[in-house]
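REVIEWER CHECKLIST
Item 1: Sequence provided? yes
Item 2: Single chain? yes
Item 3: Sequence as submitted:
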Amino acid sequence: MLQDAALTRPQLKTPRAAAIAGIAFSVLLIAMLAMFRSAVPADPLESGAWLATDSNRAAIALNLIPFAGVAFLWFIGVLRDRLAHREDRFFATVFLGSGLLFLAMLFVSATIIGGLILVSNSLPASDFFNSPTFRLGRATAFIIMNIYAVKMAAVFMFSTSVVVIKTAIAPRWIAVAGMTLAVFLLVGSYLVSWSVIVLPLWVLLISGYILVDNMGIRERLL
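Item 4: Structure as written out by the authors:
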């Protein structure tokens, strides 16, 4: 019995680490999106008046992204470790590639907005708001985040749902929900502004379940 418990406990470390990393990523990204959305209008063709009134709040939100990115990378890493020898090349490419592309696009979009905030502080507000530089940067950041990054988030959710099914680290209904939401993001994300929030909400759901379930298993073993 003790030998079985000793063999089982190391295996439990990976799902618990994934859960903690997933929760950290979800909370940070949801907080960032909420703060950013409250400061910046969803319309990419807006006038930019928020740069004069809410730029500090937007800057704080952008500073949360690196921490969310670290947690997201950790989440990917521990899930891949969970797959171990069952991971094939095709699945590894889709799972890892979509996650890294989503993170890269998130960083690029945040960098563009951060650059706009920085430049706006050195120029007269009226001149910068009406400049082609602001309009191009604002529209580019919107397209990267709300079109391309959202599509990569959908692919990541779909591939992560496959992880759930293969490893049974969460109920099948969570995987089915992830696949359904992924299809929505792929074909209908343009209907809902800031639909990318679906990703952290789903990761929070699966991470919360894994953490609670794992803690219960450890209590039975002890």
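Item 5: Key structural point noted by reviewer: The chain has one domain: 2-221.
Item 6: Recommendation: ____
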